[in-house]
Fold each of these.
Amino acid sequence: MFTFTKNQTKFASVLLSVALVTFGVSAGPAQAIDNRPACGPDLDGVTVCEGATTDGAKYAIQVPEDFNGTVFLYSHGYQYSVDVPPLGYSTATSLDNPALSPDVMVTETLLAQGYAVAASTFPVLGWNTAEAVKTNVELIGVVKKAFKDTKKVIAWGNSLGAYITQALAEKYPKLIDGSGLMCPALGDVNAVITGAGDFLWALKTFFEPRLTGHAYAAGAAGLTQAYTDLGLLQALGETLQTAVATELVLGTPQWPATAPARTALGAIPVRAVLLYLGLMAGIPTRSPHFDGVSGPGVEGSTPEFGFALTANPVFAVLQNGFEAAGLAILAKYDLEVKSGGAFWNNLRTDYASRMTLEKTVFNAALGGSDAIAGIETYLASFQVPRQAASAPAAAAFAKQIKHTGKLNHPTVVLAATEDAITTDGNTQWLVNKQKTAAAKAKLLVLWNKPAAVYTKFTAAGRPDTSGPKANGTGHCNFTADQTLAVADLLADAVDNKGKLDTGTLRANVLESAPGLSIAPYKGRIQKFYISR
Amino acid sequence: MMRLNRSKKAITLTALAASVALVATMVPAQASTDKVGVTSKTIKLGISQPTTGPASAGYNKVAPAMNSYFKYVNDNGGINGRKIELIIKNDGYVVQRAVNESAALVDEGVFALVGSLGTANNTAVAEFLDLKSTGLPSLFVNTGFSGFSVKKDYPTMFSLFPSYYMEAKIFSEYIKKNFPGKKVGVIYQADDFGVDALAGLAQGGITLTEKIAYASLSQGTPSVGQSWITKLKTANVEVVIFYGVPSAVAAALRTAAALAYKPQWIVTSVGSDYTTLTGLGVTNAMLDGVVTGSFLPAPTDDADPYVKLFKTIHTKYGTGAFDSNILTGMNTAMMTANAIKAAGPNLTRSGLIRAIETKGRTFASASLTPPTYSTTSHAGYAGFWLAQINSSGVMVPESGKYKVYTTDAGKGAVKVSTYKRPAMPAKGLPK
């Protein structure tokens, strides 16, 4: 029977390997504390400083002895707002260790080139844009005061850190000189979370009704629900993976016995339904180990073709979608706590209307037009309950900081085309916001694209997911050189009147960071943006 | 760690010191893509089509046939001194692969896509490669989906085939005239390919007793063909219209024969090639009496000057038996050569598009109906002649000779065409 390699079943480690999160452990009310850094003796020619901003966030600053006057201020990505013991994740650790860049090698390279680096933990974890922007403003002041030869500040960040960076750049344009947005979340938080939230809702509604996924209880009970959801999600991932693999062998639908949609859709393969749900939620059909187009064996042979056509994109949705759904559980929980209740709703979402070209591209994998019609009929039926928001929570949630998309400085984006967490639609949103030639000249997008074919198969013809993630897939899955490409271009721009290089430097940077492209690419607009 | 020297001062100074001209040649500007793929001696074109997989039968001859014609042109001096290079990619008729392979063609610097095959494939390529914004021409696509003729939606794409919509209207007239009162059913590929045809049948006033949609490439599963025929037999359908690729048509004809089901088959022009179907296990007996259409002469018509020329070219540059796929490929290549010639020696993408819009109606080709390009429409040919395949596999024209029907993309009537094809230019080369 068709089975996966052992490593492929490790959904748990994959689905939550996103940027980490924590909750609730805020540093308490701001106190009149001294925010000046304490600097130790130089270490290998680098002055190492630590301190805390007045909101209690710990920060770190490192300045090389040949400091060239430019400092990189890094904002880290989303970190869970609650401890997650199965992952060994603790909020206390996160709040005690500021990350100076996405990668130690990046930090070391920047220091060796004469740049200073600075970052904080922020005072709270989870979705923390407002708090983080305030901390960053204060930290910039701290750096400039302590190191008076600071001339330029480049703000950059990963994922939510990019969201924070863009918010900082829009609100305090005079404080920074350039922005680096890596694997960016952009626009507004509702847009960012919609895809993952939709997929989580779909999994609950079609396959696993015990998932809470929404309107978590207050207090400890809610946290217990979220933890339970993570366990259910892991088990569901393994169940669906087995079901899809078995369908490939037996050719008959393999619905889990307790799946709510089984009665209505039992004649349609699970793989087709799963793919539909992924597509309607905007989940990429290429994942770290599934390219969406290849199969085992000789090209054009029945096994190769069958797997390529009907299975590969489904496994990609499984790999990507469960990672997104895992994040959705903890992020929705976090944001519900912050908003005072359920903020998210899909009462009026017309999922079928989001499926346009997808029905053509994946017609065979979706089981053909009759199967698609069956799924859509069920989706629209009263049997499929939607999720409602509480009005006060929705109002509180609406106050989260949103972006305008205005660029005041040279901005370099590093984005993967197949990122399931912050999809390429985020970057496309920013691209679309630049209407004039002058605005467009301030933005450079470095697209990180996967190769056309990269799925590996064992000698027995089974997909092998034991290797590293493919370039252009996964969340914030960049090499140090790719991240440093952002730094190179911004550092040059801030020294050249804010003008992003279009010549030799750009060519050299791209050559030194394989896998990146500046060729025109039209990111898929997030389904949220299409539907509203 | 291997890194470039990132001393920004040094880089900046170096860049300033370097000659501007050098920088300009090293780093192509994004805006100037109008001449990508063109040098003083070559023109690079690309095509994505299936060379392997269930849908490749017959269609895998199209691109090699195009290449044969281009080699013939090159051996006769090229066009405005330039030789044509055709890069062929295999997409297996899988849509996402077509997107990937077309993207690879772009990365390889093609001037234009040409003859790319498949309705869904071309739709996806147009969207994901953003042809509209990038200005990349996609010429003479191998599909009859009428949507590709709409300039506002696909400003860089040009249809060649008469649309499935038109073909279905013409089939409708044929059915009403020859099979009045009979129960009619249709099997169609469940995407824009089939949907376009359904719209044409509806416009033609055909009442369908049975409509069977199938997912592209599902025809490889034996039970799929079985289910089609069982449904049609159960519904007592007497006339079956088929809109699908040859492998799907073959699955239907073989299964029908096995189940002793003998309706009148009417098969779209893109699914009825004799050599392809027989290569897929369809016998002459199964094909005997099948009605189909074509806008090109029959591939067996050695009296036709184009067929004669193309056969000569195929003998020199190609392999395998000459059939309608090869005829189609050569004709597509000939139209491409015409367009490049018409665009003039200063060849640009925008100039190429303009040339087809303004001069495309005059391009010489084997078609028995005229091209209909204009500055407002990218529709190609506009009609078919109908034929019945006989027991020897020959397409016999409906009334003994080519009687071409034409119609429009809307509610217009089906009429007999009065078009007289101009004489072939000397040696079949663009002039």
Amino acid sequence: MQQIVAGLALGSIYGLVALGYNFIFNAVGIVNLAQGDFVMLGGYIYGGTLTLLLGLPFLPALVLTAIAMAIFGIISQRIVYYPLRDAHPRMVMLSTIALGIFLKNISLIAWGTYPVSVSGLFGQRGLRIAGVSILYQYIFILICVIILLAIQQFFFKKTTVGKSMRAVAQDRLAAMLMGIDAYKMIAITFAYSSTLAAIGGVLLAPVFMVSQVLANVGLKGFAACVIGGWGDITGAVIGGLVVGLVEVFSASYISSVYKDAIVFAILIGFLIFRPQGILGRATEVSL
Amino acid sequence: MGNSRLRNICLVIIFVLLACAEPLITSRFYKFVLALAVINVIMVTGLHVIFGLTGQIFMGMAGFWGIGSYILALATTKMGLGFWPALILSSVGVGFMGVVLGIPTLRLKGYYLSITTIGFGEITRFILMNWSAVTGGVFGVFNIPRPHFGGFVLTNDAHFYYFSLALAAILAVVAAILEDSKYGTAFKGVRDDELAADAIGIDSTGIKVMAFVTCGLFVGIGAGLYSSLLTYISPEVFTLEESFRFVTMVLVGGIGFLPGAIVGAVVLTFLPEMLRFLQAWYLAIYGLIVLGIVIYQPGGIAGALQGFLERRRLARGEGKQYGTA
Amino acid sequence: MRRIVGVVLAVMLLATCSVNAAEPVYIGAMGAITGGSAISGEQASQGLALAEEDINAAGGVLGRPVKIIMEDSRGLPTGGVTAARKLIFQDNVVGIIGCHQSTVVMAIEPLIRQEGVICMAKGSADMITAAGNPWIVRVREYDTLAASAKVRHAIDKGYTRFAIFHNTDQFGEGGRQNLIDALARHGLEPVAVEAHNTGDKDFTAQLLNIRRADPEVLIVWTHGDEHALICRQVAQLLPDVQYYGSMAITQWSSIQMAEGTSEGAYTTSPYSYLNPDPDVQAFVKRHEERYGRPPETFTVLYYDSAMMLAEAIRRAGTTDRAKVLEELKNIKGWKGVSGIEYSFDEKGEAFNELFICRIENQQPVIIEKVSVN
């Protein structure tokens, strides 16, 4: 029971990161491999600068982090994506990896080598029901993920901007002919997915601390996206929960040192045998 | 690009320069870095086949490198094999890993293939670290021997250097011949447009597997030399960052142009050592440089060279026109 | 970063003012400046900056100023080997202080032996001095010492059911083996042994496995970041188990990161910033004024090593490495700013005593000093 709770808690974190990947993919059709580093940067801005240095309370810090990251997202799409919009997708992949390396190491210089530790709203307090304990922070993360999921779902299905974005992702030229400003849409996409990363960083900082290593959640988030199925927003969250559960259960019953290897193996298995993911919506992924 | 005469001329120039460099460099430190650079040249020649020619972003180089290093290390220290059989074993062994890794590519393309190779590299590192009964685990492998010819052991770093350089040159020639063969055309076909390649009857999956295997055979030799040069290896070296560093070498040199990749390997081996004074800033600046190359000079050094030659040709042509007019 | 540059500049200015422009004596050092363990490298370079200042303020050595060159090993054997070659062949250093990673020390061991350079290792694995390299000495508590001290302390308190939770890197694997050996000497076996990888963030699965074995004591053998997170999660899942940590949990930064969950934990450490010893306190005060936080273990160990190496050069009256090494090994009862008295034994170990600390009110309080004998 405790394992299931732990797996779901961890999984909601991966799901949160996966939402960011998913959003960019649905809107632009590329994968931002620096997404994990964006999460780390959000955590540093929130924890290192706004909370510890300026002493801001939670909500203003969250809002400011989100705004800062949205601006950062627009700038970085201008630098790493826009010049490559017509190049082979492999160049975008390389440029986002390079951006990730830059971010990891510039944060080391900006915020120092000591991990940034903040208490968030709940600190280390938690709930204990029938011998199962869970941190309030995890419950908070899960609630946030569900809210964000609903927003994202609503956004793509119901709003004009969301529909325009899907059009841009599917066929940029056609969308532009229909009068959609594709490049504005792409800028908005990056701004929003960076905001998601900011929220991720803010929510993760109290449980994981902020250091270079935090960027590694990016790879797990990516795995969550693949396992859940790309085009699908709910799939991303479900994928996250699956990855979390797999990690905890393989650590419990198979091997704690190979748990990451097992996640990778399952990821590769999905890529080969079920590239459309668990939910299996038949979106052809042409990467 | 791909002009094979230009390529051959560049290759000759590069290897002559590398051969002259050893006595010209007086510092024993930079001599060692030069030896490392040549080992990286061998491994990058392998990566050139899969990434430069076939266009697959292979992010699992550290896996190949790690497996190759460990095969040579374990074969010589634990199985009691001589250096030569061990080197062949490490080449063949990593080549075999190319098959293992190549099979998933039967169904994977682009990002998915790259992610699979990331997974492969990471899984390899976990196994090297934790399967201690075989690999010696995190404590690493000691006393790996240097190569020998009969009773003559290459303990001298200069001897080792020329030995590695000779192997690098041979492998570069092999890669060049392969590139000019019908397989080379097929590699490039897959790189430029996989669907079109399939349409004109190129077996793109088979070609990719073959590229992986060739890469493995080359990397196995480089990796074996690496563990022999260092005489001690341990598993935490073979990380994703290292894999990306190899990809960067090809990128800096120019995708698809072998001399470019080789220059990239040499430059990127020396760069961190020469930029040591930057201390903590180094990796941040490295990330920026790579970013700049991808965006503003995607052809790398080779692209710049070609642009230069093109401009000169144009300038000369225009001059003639004026002369006749 | 700006601070470090500032310090370096200040040190350089000071060095040029106090000692005349004679060719400096170079001392090498290495640690991770980039990469996952960059935190240790930063601590080390702060200690070295202060040491260089003090050596030169005292007139340098042999009438010449001392310059300490710190190189980045990235905490990896590959980085360490090139860093060591640079220090030896480019800078012609008398000795190398570091690295703090045992694997890096093992990777440069053949080179150290071949070139005859002093290496004052900071890795804790037993194999470093077991390699029998006469040029390697160690200024750090070694794993068997720490493991047996912990086990003995716990057994004296009446505990018999031990669980071990270790990192899978060389540090943790060595620690696990030493703990099992130490327990075996008391006729005991651990009831559970679990492992985690560097960079892991969630330890629930392993801690639950440990909980099922129902231990009285949990000995954790890992580094600072992981340690802080493990403390937090142990407080959730195993609140009644007596926690024994690695040296890392006495670090000021780890205590902050654990947010109170390391309260009551025991550990062995070569150093605590609470040590009332006036030498230690003077150094802590100076470091706090300069860097805004108390020095950590690697800061004092790198500082002490540099001071001892300078002293050995003074005593030898030359920079000849063999003579300096001889004088270095003759150092007995040297009082360091760590609060430990170093005496090099025939194996090259400087440590034969260690503190048992307990985290009380978020401070690493020294409970007792234990020695090898």
